[in-house]
Amino acid sequence: MTSPLDQLSERIHELQAALEAELEEKRSVFRYGFDRRKVVFEEEVLARHRAARETLTSFLARTRLLVVVTAPLIYVLIVPLVLLDLFVSLYQAVCFPVYGIAKVRRRDHIVIDRHHLAYLNALQKLNCVYCGYANGLIGFVREVAARTEAHWCPIKHASRTADPHSAYVRFSDFGDEQSFQKRTQAQRSAGPNAASD
Hints:
197 residues; mainly alpha; two-stranded antiparallel sheet; 61% helix; 4% strand
C-alpha cells in the first residue's frame, strides 16, 4: 500500500508530464523543432521574428538610468557563479563515485537556448544566456545537494520547508529513529556502487 506522500509525489510527476505535453504542443504552435539540440524555426517565422527585433539603440534609449547603473551588480555575480559551478562539479566528480551516488548531468539543468530567438537584440540575448546559466546552475547545485542530503542525512525537518527537493518526500520522518537506522544500514550494506536517491 502506498503512503499519502507517495501518492502526492506520483501526482506531482503526472502533472510534470502533463506540463511537458503542453509545452510540446506549444512547439508546434510556434513552429519550431530541434536539429541536434539546436532550435530551428521555420523560415517564415524566423523572418517575422527578425522584423520584430528592437534595435539595441532603441532598447538602451528607453532603459531607465537606475537600471543601467545597477546592471554591473548583476553581471559581477558571474564570478561567484562560475566558482560555484567549478567547485560543485569538482565535488561531484570526486566524491559521488566514492559514495555511490549517481552523478547529476549539468545539461539537464543548464539550458541555454533563448539566444536562438531572432526577435531579441544582442543585449537581450546576452541577458538570456546569463539568466539561463545562473538559474540552471542553481538547479544543478540544488540537485547535487539533494543527492548528497539523500545519502548522508535523509531526515525531514521538523519545521516546514518552502520548496523541498524531489528526494525529500522519501526521507525519514523527523523523530523516526527506526526508519533512519534501517535506511542507514541498507545504505551501508549496498556499498559504494549503489545509487542513492
